[in-house]
Amino acid sequence: MQDLVQKLQIYKSEIGEYTATDEPSVEAFRIKWLGSKGLVKTVMGAMKDVPVEQKKEAGQLLNDFKLFVEAKFSDLKEAATASSGGAEKARPDLSLPGDTIALGSRHPITLMRNKIISIFQRLGFAVAEGPEIEDDWHNFTALNMPAHHPARDMQDTFYVDAGSNSAVDWLLRTHTSNTQIRVMEKGVLPIRVICPGRVYRNETISARSHCFFHQVEGLYIDENVSFADLKQTLYFFVKEMYGGDVRVRFRPSYFPFTEPSAEMDVSCFICGGKGCNICKKTGWVEILGCGMIHPNVLQNCGIDPEKYTGFAFGMGVERPAMLKYGINDIRLFSENDVRFLRQFTSAT
Ligand code: DAH
């Protein structure tokens, strides 16, 4: 009995000093003391050698010892899980901010297109859309470009193979001017629309040009519409788009569907007109083509050119977007690289 008491004391002091901060050492403790061949079992086995009159006392001692080992084991286990972060993991920290969900962003072309649209909407222009796969009539002929007209060569066209039975030539529209024709053909006057959309040309892809890009077309038809109205409308647009300090100039130009025709330049908003790489040292940046709608075009759409006049204009979206956002390669717009697109999450 004396032996047993002594043994338990030695065991207890050994156990009392034992520390374990990781799970393997806690497991080692369990195996040594509480395992099926562990020391607790062994000392319990000593009961059979204890004389009957001491059995009660010895049983008490051994039970206390077993409880002592079990309590130590559970302390060790708790300490080890806490230090491995397990307890923290099991209990969520409600004070942490939630997981952020990545925000989508508008494409820079969409941003620029919406900006252009909203300026004209303030002047009462409605938005009209036309098809990207178009027939020859709406893209060329009705716009005063009959077959073999040399102006057709200004725009390299992608033709669509519609089979030999097709009565008309189908193509990918080369400009948004097709939508002018579609709106005019409806015959509801007066007309005041802008037509945003994607256009296609068979051009070599480079940093400056692509085989598809975007345009916004404008069209205004009513009685007594004059070139002065065209200029005022575009002055307003430029002021809203580029600020009040930007200067404007019109240069005579040629488009088959307008007469007279002009191209409009704005003073370079990068260098303020002093001359830089963007404006090729001229101080001016061309932004659109425009003119008074040719009487043949009105007639082609069933509108009486004696009664009605109108103006039209067409501008690209890529170039102003490149200038505004400092993008130097047009191909970035269509590569869908999220590292590029992500930069416009908070752009306006
Ligand atoms: N369609 C022309 C182009 O793609 C742009 C244009 C010029 C449109 C003059 C017009 C206009 O409506 O009046 O180059």
From TrEMBL:
Enzyme class name: ligase
One GO cellular component term: cytoplasm
Subcellular location: Cytoplasm
Biological-process GO terms, alphabetical: phenylalanyl-tRNA aminoacylation
CDD domains (alphabetical): PheRS_alpha_core
Keywords associated with the record: Aminoacyl-tRNA synthetase, ATP-binding, Cytoplasm, Ligase, Magnesium, Metal-binding, Nucleotide-binding, Protein biosynthesis
Assembly notes: Tetramer of two alpha and two beta subunits.
Annotated family: Belongs to the class-II aminoacyl-tRNA synthetase family. Phe-tRNA synthetase alpha subunit type 1 subfamily.
HAMAP family in alphabetical order: Phe_tRNA_synth_alpha1
Database matches in PANTHER family: PHENYLALANINE--TRNA LIGASE, MITOCHONDRIAL (PTHR11538:SF41), PHENYLALANYL-TRNA SYNTHETASE (PTHR11538)
Name by which UniProt lists this protein: Phenylalanine--tRNA ligase alpha subunit
Organism: Niabella soli DSM 19437
